[in-house]
Amino acid sequence: MQRISSGQRHATYRLGDLAVVSLCDGYADMATSRLRQPGDKPFGDDLPAQVRLVDGALRLSVNTFAIDDGADITLIDVGAANAWHPTTGFLPEALQEAKIDVDRIRTVAVTHTHLDHIHGLVLADGNDGFTQLSRLLVPRLEMAMFRAEARLQRFHDRAEPLDVGQRLNAQIEAIDARGHEVGHTCFRVTSGGETLLIWGDVVHVPSLQFDRPEITWEFDADQDAARATRLRLLALAADNNCYVAGAHLDAPGVGRVVRNGEGFRFEAV
Predict the structure, then answer these.
(1) N or C: which end of the chain has fewer CB within 10 A?
(2) Please, which residues have CB within 8 angstroms of residue 38's CB and are 6 or more apart in sequence?
(3) pLDDT at 39
(4) Is the pTM of this model over 0.85?
(5) What superkingdom heads the lineage (predicted)?
(6) Which residue positions in the chain have pLDDT lower than 50?
(7) CATH class of the domain whose range is 2-268
(8) How many angstroms separate the CA atoms of 228 and 226, rounded?
(9) Which distant-in-sequence residues (6+ apart) come within 8 Å of 232 by Cβ?
(10) How far, CA to CA in Å, does 60 sit from each of 116, 122, 144, 171?
(11) Could you tell me the residue ranges of all domains in the chain?
């Protein structure tokens, strides 16, 4: 996997015969109290020295990923639009910077239904984000949660259930990543003998959770399952020479995982 172009809000990589584009929707600053030690115990002010803070807060990138096979583009997650922090909602600018024609985006698949992953379906001005969208895939176990989002009402009946093991096409397969949410899904992308795991919210705070994967996040719906999934996918990536792409890894959020003693280390591409 090799980076072939980049800008303020995007980075494009070659993965076999595919182009994979990281698109930055923005960032969100979150309280350190969102982190949880085993036993659902908040850290408080007792944070390890390596944790990166901005004005006392954890700064989380919000990334989405486009997979271009030369014909159509599949977009994994769509950002927050104007439904969350004012520092998010910049996916349209990222697409423009990356010179991606939104009319080529025919398939959108979401890792889960938290607002920073789905609300970019509707732009801040109320128009559709992707006017040529023909397939919208939502994890089956979260269909009810998706249909509870009033802002996305026009998409409620268009969404199709996505199951673990389902193939979006010849290069993209959905794999189980439950824990952060009940249907949380990772997408395994393969081409030319290379593999990329687009894993959504498996890691929220990269300066901490690679080294200490037992640490969870307040918004993990099932913290034990989220911890187990993180350990499983970190090991999968490290032991099988997979690349990873994370929604909340520091933008552009693409790299490798290597074992580091009892923990792991992230190495950006």
Answers:
(1) C
(2) 214, 216, 227
(3) 81
(4) yes
(5) Bacteria
(6) none
(7) alpha beta
(8) 5
(9) none
(10) 11, 22, 27, 29
(11) 2-268
